[in-house]
Specification:
Layout (H helix, E strand, L loop, with lengths): L11 H17 L11 E8 L4 E5 L9 E3 L4 E8 L8 E2 L15 E7 L5 E4 L9 E6 L12 H18 L3
Parallel strand pairs: 1-4, 3-8
Antiparallel strand pairs: 1-2, 4-6, 5-7, 7-8
Helix pairs in contact: 1-2
Amino acid sequence: MANPFGAPEVTMKSIGFILFSAGLILAAVPAQAQSSGQTSFDLETHGDGTAFYFTLKGATEHNPTLTVPADTEIMVTITNTGDVPHNFCDSFDGECSDYVQTTGEKATFMFKSGSTAGTYYCLPHRPTGMVGTIAIAGQSSTPEKKSPGTELVGISIALVGAALVLRRK
């Protein structure tokens, strides 16, 4: 049947070609990366003679897990909340920040995260538990159920499109 407006006629083959093309594009596009993590942290150091720990500035959780991107420069600023000397060290390269020795004193430390999880700690108080975990964003110790993903959906759409293009009238 002729189109009275002069527009091209839509056929099953043209729909099939569109689906095939869209499916291939969808299958080729990489899936979104999981959470990228943070690249800077403000930590406070605490010590009362018996308990030594870090907290995120304004928070109360002792030695919180820091989630960072893999193989990325990370900046940590530590602020002393007392008069016990502390520093910040990372397990990726074993380097440490300068010590903060008095209330309000700050030190900033840069390090490169690894590709797997690590730890951070205060060198003199590590034996007493002033140690936290550095997790790598997107990595999990528990298996996750994953959806089929955009690749599988794209391939399925491309196959439907190919079937429409190749079908006989």
